[in-house]
Design brief:
Shape: globular
Helix content: 10-25%
Strand content: 25-35%
Strand order of the largest sheet: 10-9-8-7-13-12-11
Number of strands: 13
CATH topology of the largest domain: PH-domain like
Number of helices: 5
CATH class of the largest domain: Mainly Beta
């Protein structure tokens, strides 16, 4: 359920309030914030998803919409402009086109997958997966505020891979594929063969891409799942 909230974009932060005369519910650093249009997921045509990494390293999502499409577009552009200004101050010698790619990004892919736990006896459970650059998150529902788990996707030469099928001893749910990381293997299953093939394709593209310095720092503090 959506509730009215007041948002304030000032300096290098975005704050939102439950009540105007109270302290902000959250103060989000622009450096940690991503914003993306999500028209289908909320059921509202003019919707945004705000995602950021909190101080404890966990990921937080909030979902917002406005009846006026121009209001939503203006907020989206204002956040991007504020992020660009911050980067221009931090990197005065960088060209603008170099910085634009660091502002915000749409999710590479989202959708339902079945996922099982680390033991062959664990049951498959339906989860909503979001591929956000090198971070693969899964949730019980598309509009959950927090992912149940996050998987960092490094480079294929560092022990990361994805292929059709399941690990030895695990049940094949149908349309299955196996994501392997240095820490664990994830047995996943799509709803259709084309969807499985597309998930494998987009994950492979990420695994084949060299890591940036920022992504290397992310890999050192990557969040591992705590629940199935």
């Amino acid at each position: 359920r959506f509730h009215p909230r007041k948002f304030v974009l000032a300096g290098e932060t975005l704050s939102y309030y439950v009540k105007e005369n109270r302290e902000p519910k959250a103060v989000i650093r622009l450096a940690d914030l991503n914003v993306a249009f999500i028209t289908k997921k909320t059921g509202h045509p003019n919707s945004l998803q705000l995602t950021w990494v909190r101080g404890d390293g966990s990921t937080r999502h909030i979902f917002v919409y406005h009846d006026d499409v121009q209001t939503v577009v203006h907020w989206y552009m204002a956040i991007r402009c504020a992020k660009l200004h911050r980067l221009q101050v931090a990197y005065p010698s960088a060209q603008e086109d170099e910085l634009v790619g660091l502002l915000t990004q749409d999710f590479i892919k989202e959708g339902w997958l079945f996922k099982t736990g680390p033991r062959p006896t664990d049951a498959y459970k339906k989860r909503w997966f979001t591929l956000d650059n090198r971070k693969l998150m899964y949730h019980e529902e598309p509009l959950d505020a927090h992912p149940k788990g996050e998987v960092f996707l490094g480079h294929m030469l560092e022990g990361y891979s994805v292929r059709v099928g399941v690990a030895a001893g695990f049940k094949d749910q149908g349309f299955s594929f196996l994501l392997s990381t240095p820490e664990r293997r994830y047995n996943l299953s799509a709803l259709t063969a084309p969807d499985r093939d597309h998930w494998i394709s987009v994950i492979q593209e990420v695994l084949q891409r060299p890591l940036t310095l920022q992504e290397k720092s992310m890999s050192k503090g990557r969040v591992q799942e705590t629940v199935v």
